[in-house]
Records
---
Amino acid sequence: MADARFDRLPRTVELVRDGDGHAGFAYVDQRLLPARLHIARTGDWRAVVEAIKTLAVRGAPALGAAGAAAMTLWACNEGAVPLQAGGCCEMRPRFFEALGRIADEVADARPTAVNLAWGVRRLERLARVRADEGASPSDIADALFAEVKRMEVEDEAANRALGVHGAALLPSNARVLTHCNAGSLATVFFGTALGVVYTAAARGGIERVYADETRPVGQGARLTAWELSRIGVPCTLICDNMAASLMARSQVDAVVVGADRIAANGDTANKIGTYGVAVLARHHGIPFYVAAPESTIDRSIPTGADIPIEERDPAEVLPAPIPGVEVWNPAFDVTPASLITRIVTERGVFEPGKLVY
Ligand code: MRU
């Protein structure tokens, strides 16, 4: 597939800066898709936190870049400017006290995707290193900006690399089932699970993608279907409860999904419903692949039991409450490593239990 097709996809998140040093964050407001492709812009880190909480920006790798961008907006537009007047040495503790508070608030916006905290802590560490070297807050803000731009480039490069590794696992004319949206919209650009699909499709290797609708928020129905349609990959949308019948009819050659956090033993948290798809795949003898960048692996967590699972507003499941009816709305579930055939990262293809190297 010629790269020109990818011009039809927007960059999902992008940090920008104008001539006077003011930083801005541009993002696809995913709540409006597929009806409307709207690039929202803000210079306020609080608006980025809100966008994360409301799923305007979502998907683990995109959250990493957005969280880091939020901190940078604060540093460039608020932190470095007024504090500069007091002189470097007096204001540095105040700068770091505020930066630490903002880092925590951004990292806590959503708990499951480790990429969010990974992006935030990467910037916090860099700020400390630069401060130890004697940098002023405005120098630190410049360094944070440059680091986020590096992260954006790294994200696309990782997705393209894992796409190549993952595509090699698929048979020719593959029929692939995916859950949620692990596409370009979930990353800075290109996508993880769909990065694998796009790479295989470029070689003519994809017959069709079955996109699970992905209740309750419909990331498959609204986002994956939209992306595949824009790129021109044949797509069939199914309700979540149709996957078993499709597999029973031998219509699925492989399942490829993304991940929000992968524990050291390979247990993987991803959008609610992924676990069920993995059970179905095992029952029908279909390979189940997880595609994710290294930044999604949390080696500090031994097993999936330690992964925090976000619970969201019941209104996502039941918009008009019914008296006496409770709603349980976990946003993610954990697929045990034993159900995962291989984990694909930018470094290669791994058995789930062999991620520690
Ligand atoms: O709640 P969301 O939409 O942020 O959940 C996203 C997912 O579960 C994705 O599959 C995951 O983040 C991988 S994205 C490359």
---
Amino acid sequence: MSDEHLHYLEAARVAASVREIAEDFVKPGVKLLDAAEKIESEIQSQGAFMGFQACLSLNEAAAHDTPAMNDGRVLKDSDVVKVDFGVHVEGCIIDQAFTFNASNEHEKLVSASKQALDDALSVMRAGKTVKDVGQAISDAITKAGFRPIENLCGHSLAPWVVHAGVSVPNVPVGDYVLKEDDVFAVEPFATNGAGRVEDGSVTEIYALVDDRGARLPQSRNALQWIHEQRQTLPFAKRHLLPVLRSEASVNLAVRDLLRQGILREYPILNEVNAGMVSQAETTVIVEKDSVRVLV
Ligand code: MN
Ligand code: MN
């Protein structure tokens, strides 16, 4: 087995353990900020690194909802929360998510994305196309009475890259043929809305896209942290608070680096009809006759 695969397996071990812990403490009454920080600190204390910020996307927010620096939101009984976090070892990233709805009001919606993930995994092997995978996802979600989100996709993973170029759609499109040793995050999204997401007005997630320096002292300090801790991996604005020590400085640095095109932003993604959204996600390695499910 290659070193790379060993790193994926080690990241997967930590991701599975942290997921188990998260399933215990992501409960009504928990502060979203505390939950995200706990997930991220558990990853570190188990000897791995944050692949990307922990997201707790609520209800019609499908993805990219990570708590703000001063976030006061508390999980409610009725919330449908997508808990999505990444773990990396030497840049090899495990991407996983689960959905929790304490009231069980949306149990069928939650089951639909889980079933779609199971069905997707059972068709995946070398030689199948991503269209075959999208078909399995779409069929499972439609059969359950919901819509797949057509403009959200799973993705290939590569060292230090979360979205490495190949998309794994929720609908039957795409010609890419799966190859042995390909690493994919597979993530069906089901909704009772229209089946599309759009950028919302809130952004808390950023990543480095240009290696230029900056002049502003706050921006230079932020960049130093980004180069040391994140390289090109995404991070949350709140991660800069211990580095820059005030919300004002963080906001100043992020605005400055965005304006110069040094950072890119990842806005929250909301279902266009404010439909409820569920997600199930795991990371796999493609094998000759099946996939190895890592977490
Ligand atoms: Mn994910
Ligand atoms: Mn993903």
